[in-house]
Hints:
Layout (H helix, E strand, L loop, with lengths): L5 E6 L13 H6 L9 E3 L7 H9 L5 E6 L3 E8 L4 E2 L7 E18 L1 H5 L5 H5 L5 E3 L4 H11 L4 H15 L8 H9 L2 E4 L2 E4 L2 H10 L21 E4 L3 H4 L9 E4 L1 H9 L3 E4 L4 E4 L2 E4 L4 H25 L1
Parallel strand pairs: 1-3
Antiparallel strand pairs: 1-7, 2-6, 3-4, 4-6, 5-6, 8-9, 10-11, 12-13, 13-14
Amino acid sequence: MPPFNVWLVVANERIKGKEEGWHWDxxxxxxxxxxxxxxxxxxxxxxxxxLSLKCIREMKRGDIVIAYQAGEGIIGLCLLASSGxxxxxxxxxINTFDLAPEPALRLQKAVPISQLKSDSRTALxxxxxxxxxxxxxxxWEALKQHILTANPHLNGAMRRxxxxxxxxxxxxxEEKDIWRKMEIERSQxxxxxxxxxxxxxxxxxxxxxxxxxxxxxxxxQFPMPDGRMLIEVHYLKPLTLIGPLGDHPGNMLVLCPNHHxxxxxxxxxxxxxxxxxxxxxxxxxxxxxxxxxxxLAITWREEYQLMKQRLEEEQY
Length: 316
C-alpha cells in the first residue's frame, strides 16, 4: 500500500443539449484561468453521501485524486492542496477540499468503467460508485496500469507527477481556520519542514518603527493604554510554507488589525511596489511604501525566485 491515499472523485454525466452538470475538463483545461477560491470543491450542494463525507474527513494535502467522469471513465489525475475542511466554518461538517492547480495530468484516452469492471483487481471499487468521493488507495497500482496501458506516452509524465506529489506532501497548505492562522503569525516560533524555527522578531520590530507604527494602508496608529502601539506584521508568503527565507522585511507589510484580517481573508492579493498600490479581491488601495522597504522587497523577491528555481530543478 502506498504511503499516501488515493481518492476517486466522480463528476456526474452531463446531459446532452443542456448546460446542467459539471465536467472534469473545466478543471484540466481552464485551471490556469481560475481564481484561488475556485479550487475549493465539495460542499452541501455536491457531497451528500455518508461514505463520501467519511472519505473527505480522511483527506490530506498531496493525496492523489483520480478524476472520474460518469459516462466516460477516468480522464485525468490531480492532487489535493488541502485536507478536508468545513465549507461553513464552525459547522463541524467536513465536506470540502481544495485541488492543486499543478501538477495535473489530462489523459488523451479515458479508461472506461467497462474496463475496470472486467478486471478483478478493480471490480470491487467500481461496485461502490454511488456517491462522489471514494477511497481508491488499495487499487492505485492496478488503476495506474490501466491508465498507462491506454496512454503509454504518459509514462515519464506519471513518474514526474508522483515525484511532485511527494514534494507537495512535505509542504504546508493554506490554513483554513483564519484565526488560528493569525495566531501562528504572532507566535515566536513556527514549524517548517518538520522542525521548529524561531521568528526573527527584531526584523519585524525594525519595520514597525520604520513606519512609525502606522498601518501602510490606512496610516492610522492604535495606541494602547499602557503606551504600546497595536500594530501587526503580515507575511506575504507564509513562513510555514517557505521557511526562514520569508522572515525578511521584503516579505512583510505593517498593518492595523482590520487590514491584516482583510488580507488574510483575501483570495487574490497583489502588490504593485512601483505604483504603491495593493489589490485585494479586485478592490484597489493606496499603499504607503518607504523607499528603503521598497528596495528590500526587490532584493527579497530576487532571492525568492532563485529559491523557487532551485526547487523546480530538484523536481526534475
